[in-house]
């Protein structure tokens, strides 16, 4: 049964802590318990458990599912709080949603994905040595020799993927170079084949599809709705639809990377590297990870480069909701940290996840792992630490409170999955 997606304003934002599941009890009852998942609002948790020697099921805050399977994979909650997983019985794979399995089963399923509201679910599928996409249990009418880079439209009603339309024998180099791959949208292919394609993406309205492509062994271009740019480059990273409908992409020519939009330079500056583009949700301006010089990493926004430099890596650029702030994760040596507005936090960690801004853009937080323990930081300060596991923080709509979801690591909280709402100091 489908549940209505709850808006964050409808969540319980009263300060305080509540236990939503006890992993100790689950382990005592089932022995084998995988890492749990938690609902977006923190009101429930679930985990894959072994119910017999070669039999698995799913236990949640609401109890144990009736279904039993040989294998379970990719357990997750959707935005509508439905719980789903890929399941296999006697070698046949399907998707289970709230203990109900799709009517159809397949030889294999992978890359499960959900629409932003959780209503639609999809995956890549293999059936009889043929490949396709499957949406809400319905497989494409047309199948192909291979499939990868599955993408879902924001509304969840369309799928696109790179597909192989020409059979290849091992070592058939000439046929490979002539082009055996294209993009299929809901099973319907573009009219042109390429050496290969990758980074398939939908536009925000779901009406257009873009992909990076190799038109030959050495020439790269961008393809939008089956039509190639006239320009050719030495290399490309992931293309991105801009707010005005143009497509931007980091492109390499003459040994330098540059931001290109619809085939023409968007910025005057060039880089040793440029990738991971994001757009300002208000103005539509572009930012990305760049290396102004070899081995020095930072962010660039609207052709302006940060002064901050990292020696090893920069990842996860994120704009604030008002578009005025920009954050990322960065690594120097063995230490990861977060940088925001061209300033770096004082703390370093073994591992760090992508920054999360509050809706009012006033606060930025993330989850981290250090010395084997998890913590959640907001504005550079730990709000909770010493956990066995943690999920990303979630800020209240007014930005005054933060929801912490984690597994306690000591004391009365040890082994307990909990939610806690805290005031932001």
From TrEMBL:
<dbReference type="InterPro" id="IPR011042">
    <property type="entry name" value="6-blade_b-propeller_TolB-like"/>
</dbReference>
<protein>
    <submittedName>
        <fullName>WD40 repeat protein</fullName>
    </submittedName>
</protein>
<dbReference type="InterPro" id="IPR011659">
    <property type="entry name" value="WD40"/>
</dbReference>
<dbReference type="Pfam" id="PF07676">
    <property type="entry name" value="PD40"/>
</dbReference>
């Amino acid at each position: 049964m489908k549940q209505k997606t709850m808006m964050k304003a409808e969540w319980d934002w009263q300060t305080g802590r509540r236990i939503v599941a006890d992993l100790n009890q689950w382990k005592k009852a089932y022995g084998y318990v995988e890492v749990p998942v938690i609902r977006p609002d923190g009101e429930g948790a679930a985990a894959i458990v072994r119910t017999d020697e070669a039999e698995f099921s799913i236990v949640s805050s609401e109890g144990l599912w009736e279904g039993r399977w040989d294998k379970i994979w990719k357990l997750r909650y959707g935005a509508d709080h439905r719980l789903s997983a890929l399941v296999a019985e006697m070698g046949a794979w399907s998707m289970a949603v709230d203990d109900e399995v799709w009517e159809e089963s397949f030889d294999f399923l992978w890359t499960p994905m959900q629409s932003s509201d959780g209503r639609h679910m999809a995956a890549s599928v293999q059936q009889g040595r043929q490949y396709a996409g499957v949406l809400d249990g319905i497989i494409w009418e047309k199948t192909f020799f291979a499939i990868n880079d599955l993408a879902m439209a924001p509304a969840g009603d369309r799928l696109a993927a790179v597909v192989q339309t020409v059979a290849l024998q091992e070592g058939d180099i000439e046929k490979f170079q002539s082009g055996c791959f294209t993009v299929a949208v809901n099973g319907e292919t573009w009219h042109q084949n390429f050496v290969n394609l990758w980074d398939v993406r939908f536009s925000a309205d779901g009406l257009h599809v873009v992909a990076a492509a190799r038109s030959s062994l050495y020439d790269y271009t961008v393809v939008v709705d089956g039509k190639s740019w006239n320009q050719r480059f030495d290399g490309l990273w992931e293309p991105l639809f801009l707010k005005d409908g143009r497509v931007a992409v980091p492109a390499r020519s003459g040994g330098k990377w540059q931001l290109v939009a619809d085939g023409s330079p968007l910025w005057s500056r060039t880089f040793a590297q440029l990738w991971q583009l994001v757009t300002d949700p208000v103005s539509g301006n572009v930012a990305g990870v760049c290396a102004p010089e070899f081995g020095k990493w930072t962010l660039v926004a609207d052709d302006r480069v940060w002064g901050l430099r990292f020696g090893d890596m920069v990842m996860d650029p994120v704009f604030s909701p008002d578009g005025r702030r920009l954050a990322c994760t960065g690594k120097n040596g063995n230490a990861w940290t977060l940088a925001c507005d061209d300033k770096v936090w004082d703390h370093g960690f073994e591992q760090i996840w992508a920054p999360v801004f509050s809706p009012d853009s006033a606060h930025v937080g993330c989850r981290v792992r250090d010395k084997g323990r998890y913590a959640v930081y907001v504005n550079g300060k730990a709000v909770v630490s010493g956990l066995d596991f943690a999920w990303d923080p979630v800020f209240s709509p007014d930005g005054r409170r933060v929801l912490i979801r984690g597994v306690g690591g000591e004391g009365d909280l040890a082994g307990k999955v909990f939610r806690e709402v805290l005031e932001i100091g």
